[in-house]
Amino acid sequence: MKRLLWAAAALTLLALPLFTDATLGHGWVRILDFALLYVLLALGLNIVVGYAGLLDLGYVAFFAVGAYCYALLSSPQFNLHWPLWVLLPLGAMVAACFGVLLGTPTLRLRGDYLAIVTLGFGEIIRIFLNNLGAPVNITNGPQGVSGIDSLSVGSYNLGQTHGWGFFEFVPVVNAYYLFLIGVLLAIVFSHRLERSRIGRAWAAIREDEIAAASMGINTRNLKLLAFAMGASMGGLSGGLFAGFQGFVSPESFTLMESVMILCMVVLGGMGNIAGVVLGAVLLSVLPEALRAAGPLQQEWLGRVVLDPSNLRLLMFGCALVLMMLLRPEGLLPARARQRELHGE
Amino acid sequence: MSSVVKPLLQAFDIHKSFGGLKALGGVSLSLEQASITGLIGPNGAGKTTFFNVLTGIYKPDAGHTEFRGQTLPAGLPHLVAARGIARTFQNIRLFANMTVLENVMVGRHVRTSAGVLGAIFKTAATRREEMAIRARAHELLKYVGIDARSHHVAGTLSYGDQRRLEIARALATDPFLLALDEPAAGMNASERAQLGELILRIREDGRAILLIEHDVKWIMRLCDFVTVLDYGLCIAEGSPLEVQNDPRVIEAYLGVGAA
So what's the ipTM on this one? Predict the structure, then answer.
């Protein structure tokens, strides 16, 4: 029975983009692609915030590092065209290094203070990217890097349409499958880390840092490890993003993105993989669905009363307030979080 | 204990101040192998500060500690634990939202080695290690008598059981010295007696115990040696009988003139 459910879930995931493409069109598959990238980001942030309990408000910086890593090494910018299987791990590793780099000065900070400093780091990275266009042009400044090679696995170019039998695999569908592999890997990694000696040590640090240290846990190294692991998933997501978009600019990596990713983790349920995935999918798909609110109002009321983009913010705000009042632990919380917030 | 055996631990002239407050003004102390030593003294005498310096939570202003022939790292609690000193806390510091079993499993961290790659690829070595951690944790919970509660959440245990769990978690680090900060605080007479038995059993296993306690009667019965702190200074040490009759101890506890 359980095996049957798994098979059904796998089939649904595999068929989803083809079905969506056939019914709703390319645009919606693209939304699914972005949802997967957000899931990857949220899973990465979940390691830092959910497992180790370190509030990071500059997480998008690692996404940026991964994206620029890919962009600079696979575009006409330096006329380099490295292959995907080098770039993605490299992006993840460079992001992990940045995670350690940004984590080191913040080791003594906790809670709000940590949040403020990480927020600052996130901005620093973005501003660097914005200004590294002169005197030596590295990032091309605010114009960003364009003409990035499209994702391709071996000789299979994901940026082109391939027909296999009845099915037509357009670029957005191809990307979906690649991103899905990334997400599944991230889920397996997260799950296994959580239930390992490392995951227990993170949980111990989250619960009581002094007691954890007294039990022989090297809190410094384990916190850095959490930053690095979280950052590497952000970097991976960034690389995929760059290859998918074909263009990156500092504008994509604002504080608002960090906040959004954190909202996904909190809304879904910090520390619980299923919750985090749900949070990321909801917050990336629902706002897109709300775009339909404009035409609907036109049809029913004869005019647009509430601008869809305002409606999005309104609903987002309401959702946040309701969540904090009714279910502060998230939609699908981790057991430990639920206990923390509601007693037993 | 014969004097030819080298002491397990020797602290030399430990100083620690907080701003203008001198919490420890040169405490020297030595602990024998497999002994129970009581650390007593009036409130504010510096007992817990000494514990915190010993276990690396505070860095002493001056002085050092030798443990099993090596100088202990100052201000690095995880290295102190690795050397074989484990502790409990005066105000219990369990990982309250984790299960009883998980708490003890965390204690095994320092004696195990699985890393990120082992965890991600679930290698045979990691799985073996994980099973050994689990088995050892259950063993320790049985040892302190709370194995039946292994899947309960630590924060929901009764006060006495939380104390026991803290001891089990500390024992999971395979310590040579177990430092207990007021383990019997808030316990009734029968719980105290049970705790005393547990402590004696731990010593029989070859571990030394250092404990802070206010119940002088209980400590005099239990301990092989007693050290008395007052105003950050060590004012007496010796067997319980010697200490009990030391005029300075009586003075510290009861006031000048009482002796």
Answer: 0.92
User: How far is C-alpha A237 from the chain's CA centre?
Assistant: 6
Whether chain B has a CB inside 8 Å of the CB on A108: the answer is no
Of B98, B108, B122, the CB nearest to A203: B98
What distance in Å separates residue A262's CA from the closest CA in chain B?
A: 22
B90: in domain: no
Residues B119 and B153 grouped into a single domain: yes
Range of the domain at B16: 1-84+178-193+206-259
Same domain, B1 and B110: no
Reduce the DSSP state of residue A43 to 3 states and report it.
Answer: helix
Classified as helix, coil or strand, B17 is strand
pLDDT digits (tens, 9 = 90+) for A14-26: 989 999 988 988 8
**CATH code, residues A26-342:** 1.10.3470
Of B82, B93, B106, the CB nearest to A201: B106
Distance between CA atoms of residues A3 and A70, nearest Å: 38
Residues B146 and B100 in one domain: yes
Residues, chain B? 259
Considering all CA atoms of chain A, what is the largest pairwise distance in Å, rounded to the nearest integer? 68
Q: Percent helix, strand and coil across chain A, each rounded to 5?
A: 70, 5, 20
Does residue B200 belong to any structural domain of this protein? no
Q: What is the pLDDT of residues A23-42, one digit of tens each?
A: 988 899 999 999 999 999 99
Residue A223 structure tokens: 């916190």
Domain count for chain B: 2
